[in-house]
Amino acid sequence: MARTRGGAPRSSAPYLFLTPAIVLFLLFLAVPIGYTVHLALRRTRVSGLGLGKGSRREVFVGLDNLRAAVADGELWAGWLRVLGYGALVLVVMLGLALLFALLLDSAYVRLARFSRIAIFLPYAVPGVVASLLWGFLYLPSLTPIGGIDFLSASAVTYSMANVAVWGGTGFNMLVLYTNLRAIPRSYYEAARMDGASELAIALRVKIPMLVPAIILTTVFSIIATIQVFTEPTTLRPFSNTISSTWSPLMKVYRDAFVTGDLYSAAATSLVIAAVSLVLSFGFLRVVRGRAFGESR
Amino acid sequence: MRTQRLAIAAALATLFAAGCGGTAETPEAAPATAASSAPAGPVSLIYWTWAPNMDKIVAVWNQANPDIQVTVSKQAGGDDAAAKFLTAAKAGNAPDLVQAEYQHLPSFIAADAVADIAAETAAVKPEFSAGLWGLVTLGTDAVYAIPQDSGPMMLYYRKDLFEKYGIAVPKTWAEYAEAARIVHKADPKVYLGSFSSKDPGWFAGLAQQAGAQWWSISGEAWKVGINDTATTKVADFWGGLVQEGVIDDQPYFTPEWNKALNNGTQLSWPSAVWGPGVLESNAPKGKGKWAIAPLPQWNAGENFSGFWGGSSTAVSATSKNRAAAVKFATWLNTDPQGIDLLVKEAFVYPASGKGQAALGTPPAYFAESQPDFWQQAATIGASARGFTFGPNVGVTYNAYKDAFDKALQDKSPFSASVGTMQDTTVADMRKSGFTLAQ
Fold it and tell me: Where is the chain membrane-spanning (chain B) (predicted)?
């Protein structure tokens, strides 16, 4: 309709088309983030007994909450726990996913379609259900595997990592496998002509070609690990060994909904977001040369 | 240029109007100021509760009161429900009525989320014991809720297995400890009971029995005494038994614990009057084998109990129909018809004295082993003493779970965990700015 008025017809169109995206971005990303920052800078101050009207008001406290969040030893202990858990999950899950993808792509495997679905299936099980299923298998009096206390202090990290590996391997396997299928078969023929064995092709042709996909799955997995919440929260009632602040995100949940301190929760969320950014982008920066330098 | 901006503005306006459709109800909020004046025409109230079959109870009310229509919104119980209500109140869309556990009521009051209904409830005060009434007034002149049910604590025990192991029902906690040793010695797989690091409400009840006062109000200041002598005594008693290995340390309400109750490897449970429902669903095999007795005492000859759980009906501070909401809450919790429905449909142990006296037929689970269940419960209930809950029970209860989990792992003394609860609670109150008496 701008065109009929004879104004600047070509320059208004892009804005119009962009509007939905901008509005969605503002409503569902910028505003919530802004509100989180707003909350993180404030706190309620109570006077006297804190009962009755007007005894409670919100005040601006500057960086106090953020400072307290960063200085909280429990948060960093949580990071350490998650780091150990994450290292375990990343290595085992991505290792298995790569192994399965290569096996499925190799010429030798029978029942490839069935195996692919079987490995992928756990990903379709919601995290809470998976944790409950495994939780029941872990409980000493219910487990079919005797002799090990899966929920003891020394074993609980492995037990939780196991749930994550079980649930996540299939998805990562599928991403890697799909990428493998996209590699032109002629490369393999060339390698075979040069006398390469299947193993050599896997190690020296397929894996190098897969590097961008491996990096992608690693970044996704790092982010998922930083945000680990479902497994420990679901398993917590079963055991004495998982505290309410086991992972950083659990601390946010506890602050916001158990102890009713939205302000600290907001501040801790910002710290977690910062750490996620640093870790993911840090990882990308380290591997950027390898991955995208080659593929471009 | 102008047309361009106009186009953008128009597009934005359309989108915002579409996106914010939810706020179209705002004009309705206008008469909010006329809070307690008699409303004209039928009033509709939203009631958040997790009591079973409350919809059936409300249907009876709605039938008889076409002017005040109540809609039940079923909630998950416990701490989650409290968190949800506080969040809703903060967001300005709280329900008119809410089921409030006694320990969470102070945090609702502190958040200014529930209304003071002292004027409307003066008539029903005599229906309730002074102890229960104190839980909804916090010892002030205000009244923040009407008591619904209460949870006096007693000892549930396996009658048949007590006989088998040759132990008498313990009258004191010292006898309880002795019985625990005998049972565990006779069969290392069997425990007299379990210490649960996941149930702060249970521990609070045992502390109340011992005479603890975790919070109290003196003048214009809060006094926090979680690490008082009584509580420390209770903690160290259980800590000693756990460290000796004669009491289990499984949390309650886990599949593991259910199994132990069901297969007779756990012989007793200090619990509240609502225990039959739990036993019936979690230990179906024990039907007709469990009996109740008063909690063991700290000193021979004493007769005290505490409270675990129990809840009240509160009216939210933002309700536009306060008078109607109070009318419904009063009917539900004090009218013979309301109480009768509560008992029969929602299986609660009513807070009202008249309601308690009217209980006759024992729970089916106890029909054979304890036919006088309600009479026993009433006697025990009369001996229960509570304490005022503070404005940050969520913090304290969470500290309980983490501190006792840690004590169980590190095999450290339980009294230290009580100290952690005290420190965490005081630090949180100080951070918020509450006035504390020292």
Answer: none
